[in-house]
Fold this sequence. Notes:
single chain, 18 helices, about 450 residues
Amino acid sequence: MDGAFVGHPEVAARFPDLHPEFDSRAAVVEANRCLNCFDAPCMSACPTHIDVPRFIKKIASGNVMGSAKSILEANVLGASCSRVCPVEVLCEGSCVMHGKHERPIEIGRLQRFAMETFYGAGGKLPLRQREERAERVACIGAGPASLACAAELRQLGFQVTVIDRRALPGGLNTYGVAEYKLRTADSLREVEMVRKLGVEFEMREVDAASLAELEREFDAVFLGVGLGAMHRLAVEGADSVRESSAAGIGASVGVVDALDFIAGYKTGERLSVAKRVVVIGAGNTAIDAACAAKRLGAEEVTILYRRQRENISAFAFEYDHALREGVEFFWGTLPVALRETEHGISLTCMWVETDESGSLQPLKGSEFTVECDVVIPAIGQSPLVELLVQARGVTMDRGRVVIDRATGQTKNPKYFAGGDCVNGGREVVDAVADGKRAALGIAGWLSTRTEAHVG
């Protein structure tokens, strides 16, 4: 984090903001539409419970810096959440304007306006008045959950170190969110604000030995490690194509998982893609990868999904966006084999139908081929079991860390957890809420221990 991250100019040109910012006049006009509900459903719908009427009212009155500070009191990653949150199904989805058959207040864009104004004016998050505490907490992982946990703990006076294996902190905000939603530089801008609170960052791998060392060295450990690698494409021939591509056949032919594909262009390492791209899966990450492929120059981008349109896990507005980008969808399609050809990749598929029990059944004799250059599996991430099982006394259930939902504490009282390693992969705002909740849990537990020791 030495100096500001400067993205590649080609990436910036191909991935302009999906939604334009409000200017000051438009923001005030929109803010004045808000009814400032006393029992605001939008506030309840936000996992971090931002006081939405309060921050909007401050925009309407011209106190934009005060508006941003109101947001940051609840959500230290208020800027990134304003860009990536599915507001259509959270705060804006709960707006009372729906009941009046009017357009909901554009809460996300107003929040972004406040936060961009704050950062543009050089705003800093002030430390609360509190006593410095001697207790030290390690946050493993530098994604939204750990950043929120670390920021809240510093505001409470604790000494915090965030540790992550990647070169840049920020987790999926930095590496895994489509650039037209959230730029890498904007993710790192929020990291820098957390750092200025006094949080230390160490970019290094944590393995079984170093985890045991951390447990001895720190008074508490927060696990915000997210999820592991994406599930591999388990079809005949997938591994051989991946290996032959890596061996030098060329970047135009190969299998690359969706998160690696997105991280590649966000960091400027991947500035183009071959003409024909197939994405397997129909979640939000699959759509991000497909839209990115179009913007990187692919002429044909197709999403294959084994179920039907109504079964996709992607939000409806993400699906609509993909259609606007020119992405095609094949429904009820199951890839079964993949082989390299002289002209690229031949992907053998079968049509699928759903039986009475809801199970998917490939139709015999329905095989067909899809010719492409690049295959991008986006079929979910696996739990980071390899590391988590090394955390002594931490219980896992189906690959997720088991916690006390009120405090984030695990079965080993020294360990707390939050974010995707607990919830299996939800939204950034959910991870922020988890991290802040765990910080309060850690503070309460450490204070109780201190009082017991003094007593």
